[in-house]
Amino acid sequence: MKFSKFQVDKHVLTVVVWLLSISTTTAQGLQIGDPIISVEVKPILNYTADSARLTDFVGSKALLIDFWFTACASCIESFPKLDSIQKEFKDDLNILLVTFETKEKTLRTFNTINRIKHVKLPSVVADTLLHLIFPHASAPHEIWIGKDGKIKAITDHTSINRENIRSLIASEKLNLPLKKDNMEYSLFDPLIKNIDLNKMFKYNIISSHQPGLPASNGMYIHPDNGFLRAQATNVHFQNLYVMAYGQWGKGFNYSRLIIEKTALERLKETKNQQNAFCYDSWWRDTTRAKACSEMQDELDRFFNLTSYSEKRKVPCIVLRQISTKKRFISTAPAGREETYYEKDTLFLENVYLKYPVETVLNFGRYPWSPFQFFDETGYEERVSIRLPKKFESITQVNRFLQDFDLEVIMEERWLDVVIIKDNEKP
Fold this sequence. Notes:
28% strand; six-stranded mixed beta sheet; 19 strands; disordered N terminus; alpha+beta; single chain; 10 helices
């Protein structure tokens, strides 16, 4: 069957025309004051249908779109608050989560992290279209849409509170800080443009918060030119010192940063990002040890601090084998990976041991997350184990782990710690 051009869905035609228009400009997407487009969004989890029009979520209700991804800690921490707000304003507000990640990865995240497993907000997964309509470089990214279908604000998650939600519902003017990401930023380019890397031997910049850049940091060899690079955008000063002392990517627990109280108070994190910093250094033909030493000196001068490393006894949690049987080894079919709850038990099937160790035990599920964690099993393949749904004690955890020839112990070990002292005295 052939269709005439007059039989084409007018909404689809509108989207095509709009996409063509932004492709020839700067592709900034819809802005404050623009009406949203009646595009089809799918697939949608926790919704009455697998798909819907974006305009279906407005009219009798206002709409808050929350863009997120599974590795975004701030995104995850916002979900309980969003869920609470949705329940409180259910007659006047819709909240729609949107991620580019797959349905399987999304479900695994919600089923694994205890504090969000009760959240059942409608969630668009494997999205590309909404990310094109509302382009951004970092998350959380919030689009505030009134009952009239027009965009009222574009913010980060810090603007989400009940007062602002009430104003959105009441169609009052929202004077919220605009989140405008720098879409031209590239992780692989220097923060200062127009630097000729072929003529550069050393490059360094430290700055305050730069609007529009995502929070990120790392220390690595640049794949294109071989420079050693330490890079961070919009992070707290502790992140920079972890890199400077060669601990980035090594599972360094922040309890091993011993920071003087006055320094913490002076450089504490603020809502307006006043104490978020950017750092960018490139070294040609140098060792990592020398680069770290230079970075330590640069940070100390910039922040007016004194820092050094020393050995101290530190309380640690250690995961180890208690038998040669290795009953933790997974026998599940290849490709099958599951995480789910039954009553008071968390089941981890066919996952890497690193996953439950670092994500479940050490990254906030239990009260002992402030301690340095060591996996001393030496096992790097997939495992199937069970853990308690809610932590009560080390003894309780070991009752689960003993069935898999594993245990965790608490002990003090001599470890390198970083001492940071304030040079500015009151």
